[in-house]
Amino acid sequence: MPAGPVVGTVPAVSAVEVRPFEAADLTACGVLLADRHRRHRIAEPLLSPRFEDIGVATSELTGQAATDAEVIRDLYAVAAARWVDEGRTAHYVVVPAHDAQLVRAWFRLGFGQQRRVRHVRGRT
Known about the structure:
Layout: E1 8-9, E2 17-18, H1 26-43, H2 54-59, H3 69-85, H4 100-108
Antiparallel strand pairs: 1-2
Helix pairs in contact: 3-4
């Protein structure tokens, strides 16, 4: 991917540098997303194969994809700092349950570790 201005770094965690997304990044993103979907379909074969096509994955860029689960964690650290500064404090993530490394990376950030409290009204 072409070099651009650095938006943030996570030196305490890794050497990942984050920069703004550019049109030239689309193909590389499509490759990552198509590969992620291919791996996801191994665990969930009923998923549509259409997102294994790089062109389709590129045209409908959604989701998260990286070759290393720790990179996703580092990217979130940079993005979350901005989101919190902007007042966006409710963060949610959907992760394929079969990807144990990715699930662990998100768990280490505190995702999926929440308490549920149920309020029950007394009978009258």
